[in-house]
Amino acid sequence: MSKINTFATTTSAFRPLDTTRALRPARIQCPNCASSKDAPILSSRDSLNVEFHHCAECGGAWFYEKDCDLALRAAGACAWPEPKNTAGDQAACSEHTIDWTCPCCSGTLVQIQDRRGSGASIRRCLICYGGWMDHADLKRVAASEAHMFSRVGRIIRQVAFGS
Predict the structure, then answer these.
(1) What is d(CA 109, CA 61) in angstroms, rounded to the nearest whole number?
(2) What is the pLDDT of residues 27-73, one digit of tens each?
(3) How far apart are CA 64 and CA 74, in angstroms?
(4) Where do the domains of the chain lie?
């Protein structure tokens, strides 16, 4: 008599439930410009199947992707328009609070650095795993991605053609 391994059959079909999608607000206000009374509503755009919410005023972007490396690759592949605010207004706007709060779940945002070496900093939510990048960080990631592709191309040419 053979035993049926019920553990293997039940766990193979198991997928973790992503409840954060159901809890997302329909409209997101910019966490960077939140100190102004007319904080802008972020506009939605997609890049490499990652949804970004972009602020036209300060130029930053919010994303929900839990895999930070995937979000950074997608941000690097996107062309980000210049913000409406001048450089001085952006600096004043980004210094409005010490503790940032998540525009999705009101959790605390912590600052992390891009481990891939672009020099960009990302503010990540500890609850819903969303993230915010300022316009300058979006530009750094895009420049780093372009530089990475040129390095990969050089390596492939060296291997393929021996030059």
Answers:
(1) 14
(2) 888 888 876 667 788 988 888 889 999 999 999 999 988 888 889 98
(3) 12
(4) 28-157
pLDDT digits (tens, 9 = 90+) for 100-148: 888 888 888 999 998 878 889 999 998 888 999 999 999 999 888 777 6
> Whole-model pTM?
0.71
3: DSSP letter = P
> Which residues fall within 8 angstroms of residue 82, CB to CB, at 6 or more apart?
59, 135
**Rounded CA gap, 6 and 119, in Å?**
48
Q: Give the count of beta carbons closer than 10 Å to the beta carbon of residue 79.
A: 7
Residue linked to tokens 């062309």: 79
Q: Which amino acid is at 131?
A: G
Is 80 in contact with 143 (CB distance < 8 Å)? Answer: no
Contact 58, 83 (CB under 8 A): yes
* C-alpha to C-alpha distance for 10 and 8, rounded to whole angstroms: 6
